[in-house]
Amino acid sequence: MHNVIIIGSGPAGYTAALYAARANLEPLLFEGEFSPDILPGGQLMTTTDVENFPGYPEGVNGPEMMDQFKKQAVRFGTTILSKTVTEVDLSETPLKVVSGAETWEAKAVIIATGATAKYLGLESEARFMNHGVSACATCDGALPRFRNQPVVVVGGGDSAMEEALFLAKFASRVHVVHRRDQLRASKIMGDRVLAHDKIVVEWNSVVDEVLGTDSDGVTGVRLKDVKSGETREVACTGYFSAIGHKPNTDLFKGVLDMDDTGYLVTRPGSSYTNVDGVFAAGDVQDSVYRQAITAAGSGCMAAIDCVRWLEAQEA
Ligand code: NAP
User: For this structure, is 37 an active site residue?
Assistant: First the structure.
């Protein structure tokens, strides 16, 4: 039986592993197996320059940083399995973690499965993924295909505003497509977008189809006016989805407490979930900050909570 199993390999998972390993818990970490739905290393694997993680004054490449996180966790005795957890049984001790036909048992589990950017779900989005379709302007916005070209951002929240303002540094024009006549974003972000001479908001509009060709990738979008039903085309080389994130909590439905949007609920000021011995860290339980540094911080909290909880069981 393992002392602790950590599920997830982003900043939260690896920081939890580092702290648990240094407390001699010999953690087992499931990093996930690469697939369309699983990205070992988490969201930073799709990022180029990370400029806001303290300690890197010149910035750091996202995948490189995650490689360093991993090496540091391994150095102190973390065992990493490149497997995807397919099932958990947290109803009794030992807690059980399943991947395919194999089962592992542990006294404690730290969940750090993160969140995934949402897309509208159009077939044409999937068709042009990485050929003009992205959910991360900060990762991809500076690519040559978007420079001095019109691009589209979908969404009316702070993420969409942030993406639009970032893209406006490179693109010739940014069309923000929002389904209502009022932004959801904070006033300060919204005002900056509305005042920007390169950004135009396409109000009351939804993307009906992403247009393009196999050779050129995205060439435009077809928009539909939600009030009149009329459609119109907007030429663009980029389509950025910024309609929020989905926490990766399907495994824990009906077992762990979640909020209305599926984020795990932790006891305030801690990483404790509603199940004894199960802790949560990072974006899977944070819909507000969602930063690498806050994820890492909460991974540290989860490991410390876990160490103390295990000690209390043995006392
Ligand atoms: P969000 O606040 O949930 O906004 C999502 C936006 O996408 C909304 O405008 C929503 O429209 C739209 N949307 C959702 N589903 C859609 C669909 N199927 N079709 C068309 N539009 C759709 O998500 P977020 O912008 O990612 O922000 C999440 C949290 O992080 C917020 O608390 C935000 O303040 C925070 N955040 C802060 C910053 C910052 O301060 N720098 C940056 C990013 C995020 P409706 O408005 O009609 O619902």
Answer: no
Q: Which of 120, 184, 245 to mutate to test the pocket of ligand 1 (most atoms within 8 A of CB)?
A: 184
Backbone angles phi, psi at 242, to 5 degrees: -140, 55
Q: Kindly give the distance from the C-alpha atom of residue 291 to the centroid of ligand 1, in angstroms, as a whole number.
A: 16
Q: Which of 136, 236, 300, 306 is catalytic?
A: 136
How far away, in angstroms, is 15 Cα from ligand 1 center?
A: 28
Q: For ligand 1, atom 14, which residue shows the shortest CA distance? A: 243
The verdict on whether 136 is a catalytic residue reads yes
- For residue 210, what are the contacts with CB-CB under 8 A and spacing of at least 6? 122, 124, 125, 127, 128, 132, 133, 218, 221, 239
Provide the residue type at 315 as one letter.
A
> 103: which strand partners?
98
Ligand 1 nearest atom to the CA of residue 287, by list position: 29
Residue owning the nearest CA to atom 19 of ligand 1: 120
Q: Which domains does the chain have, with CATH numbers?
A: 2-116+245-314 (3.50.50.60), 119-241 (3.50.50.60)
Compute the distance between CA of residue 11 and CA of residue 294 in angstroms, rounded to an integer: 9
Q: What is the pLDDT along the chain (315 residues), one digit of tens a residue?
A: 999 999 999 999 999 999 999 999 999 999 999 887 788 999 888 766 787 899 999 999 889 999 999 999 999 999 999 999 999 999 999 999 999 999 999 999 999 999 998 999 999 999 998 899 998 887 788 889 999 999 999 999 988 999 999 999 999 999 999 999 999 999 999 999 999 999 999 999 999 999 999 999 999 999 999 999 999 999 999 999 999 999 999 999 999 999 999 999 999 999 999 999 999 999 999 988 888 999 999 999 999 999 999 999 998
